[in-house]
Amino acid sequence: MDLTVVAYVIYLLISVGLTVWVARTLSRNGKVFLADVLHGNEKLADAVNHLLVVGFYLVNLGFVALHLSQDQAVVDARQLFEALSVKLGVVLLVLGVMHLANVYVLNKIRRRGVLERGQVPPVPPQGWTDPAGGGHPGPQGPNPWATPATGA
Q1: Which of the chain's ends, N or C, has fewer CB atoms near its CB within 10 Å?
Q2: Rounded to two decimals, what is the model's pTM?
């Protein structure tokens, strides 16, 4: 059997295996993070998680398929290992970049959510003020900030 074909088979097995393992790991461990980003909405977190996994598979398996071709024929074991190391190294780098990009985007979304939650007043309003300054009584009696009455 041609060693180039052996290199292709080994490359595909390892690349697809790595892609599936990374996708499952990210999916399983990302659910909690997504639930926090999406303010505890578990159903939405599961849907977003599933969509991210599908996109992850499409991008990475597409890249694996595009990166399959070999310019030179593999004639010995040394060239087989060299070709596999270059191809698998590139796949691992792409998987890592995809993971970091996902974490970066989700962290930006999470930070925005934390800032929005921080803008909610810690205590609900307990009364109101008259915008015209009419001196309506509040819970403690007349409004001390009301405009003084003129005339005698």
Answers
A1: C
A2: 0.63
